[in-house]
Amino acid sequence: MKIFRNMKLRYKMILIYSLIAFVPLVIVDTFAMQRIGHLVNEQEKSTSKNMIEVAKNALDGDIKVYNNLSNYLAYSDTVGNLLTYQFDSEYDLYKALTTSFDPLLTSVSNFHTDISSITVYSQKNISHSTTLMPLSKIQNESWYNQVKKSNDPLWIVHGKNVLNVRKMPILERKGQLGIIAITINYDDVFKSFTNLKNKNYGIYIADAKGNVIYNHQNFEHGYYKDMLSYKQCVALSKKKDGHVLTKTSEETGWTLYYYNSFTSMSDNTVQKTTQFMIVVVFISSLLMAFAIWATSRGIVARLEALQDNVKAVEEGALEVTVTSEDQDEIGSLIRGFGEMINRIKFLIEEVYESKIKEKNFEMRALQQQINPHFLYNTLSMINFMAIESGQNDISKITLSLSDFYRTALNKGNNTCSLDDELKNMKAYLDIQQMMHDYDFELDIEIDEEIRGYESPNLILQPIVENAIGHGIDLLEERKGVLKVYATENEDQVFIMVEDNGVGMDEETKHRMLNENSKGYGMRNVNQRIKLLYGEEYGLHIESVIGEGTLVTIRLPKIVFKNRNI
């Protein structure tokens, strides 16, 4: 044991990897044939089970389609009215059959080419081609009484045809008995079982009475001895050993029996097991050769690199020179060392940057205290001087400008009440109307209930500015009108800004919301709303060139609580 402890790490790993490579190989050789053979058999059984389940589901899917067609025709008002109506002459009956009855059945047959014929049997003694016949034609059939007693479609296999027959409720409601029979090609019904990917298999399908209605045996030469009779399949299916699989159709009640060749499965198992063992021996040899090389390079070399990096850090160089994507303990150790060094560097830089940010925040706070105070005092002085000199228009525009900046600055908050946002917009529009000599009309209708909800700061001013500058100002023949109104539903608020300006095309609408074009603040407004509340909120633009533009702002219904972000 002492000799092993004193060995170099490289030689220790070579010895350990050699044992790991050869001991499992001997064990695998001993038990592989039995275990792998069992696994392959189970895999083949599972594959067969899944394959036959898919084929059964395909059959049920087709059966359901035919049942739906049968129900559609059995409840058809066209058929019901035609067979209960008293026609004045045979010509009128013939005309009704050729213009209404025949096209209905023909359209169904054309869309489903696997249908051989569709025949309606009624109490009336009427015959029309193969599509309409009296009940007397089928009263001697073995299934006739069963159909009369059942309210659901019945499936009958007759030679190379499969029949879907059922009573017609549309006639039963009018006191008459009617039966519809849809004849489907036998091969089309069972096509999902004909070309399965497996080889050397057999399928029996039996109806509810145990009568075989479908039999398909697909065996290659040399495997005929493995074919089973129907009775053998039924007997073996009761053993539940997986050799004979059974499935029941939910749509028809038919029972499916599927089995594989014992010999074929055994041959496949031996072949696959042999191939597997060759692969195992080859991979084991490669693993041993790789272990000898990887021991010195993959483990010892990584430890030596980590040791060199530790020495560099001890000397004051906070740089990570060794990295690893490996998921073993050494890789984890290298990544942990790197994360530790990066964390130390980050903390050093964070302390330095936090000092700078602290000074910036102090300056920003000072600006927010000084600038609004200075601005409001200046505007107040201008307003006083205008009143003293009798300049009412200057006083009015100064007050509007004061209201505009008060609501725009909003004490540094980025949300406000809709009431303050509307006041900001109104102050801006008052200034614009004076600048335009009141050459456009302004119509604002906002309910008081809406004014108490939350809104991002400064979202209306860019929109009305755009409506004036790029819509109303470009009008030549009519006076501009700007409308602002709002609605609400259970959880949303909608604010509409509508102008009768020149409108815009789709490219301009897209650019306003998606490009940072000069003169348009719409993109910024749309992005801020989405960042605050989510992608379902924001701006929606509708515009017709020559008629005007409607911008709808969608906001969540949140009661304003003076939130600071």
From TrEMBL:
Gene3D superfamilies: 6.10.340.10, Histidine kinase-like ATPase, C-terminal domain (3.30.565.10). It comes from the Bacteria. The keyword rRNA processing does not apply. Pfam families: HAMP (PF00672), HATPase_c (PF02518), His_kinase (PF06580). Residues 460-559 form the Histidine kinase domain. GO terms for cellular component: membrane. It is found in: Membrane. It catalyses: ATP + protein L-histidine = ADP + protein N-phospho-L-histidine. Keywords: Kinase, Phosphoprotein, Transferase, Two-component regulatory system. GO terms for molecular function: phosphorelay sensor kinase activity. The keyword Kinase applies. Signal peptide: none annotated. Its EC number is 2.7.13.3. Residues 297-349 form the HAMP domain. PROSITE patterns: HAMP, HIS_KIN. Its main location: membrane. PANTHER family: SENSOR HISTIDINE KINASE YPDA (PTHR34220:SF7). This is histidine kinase.
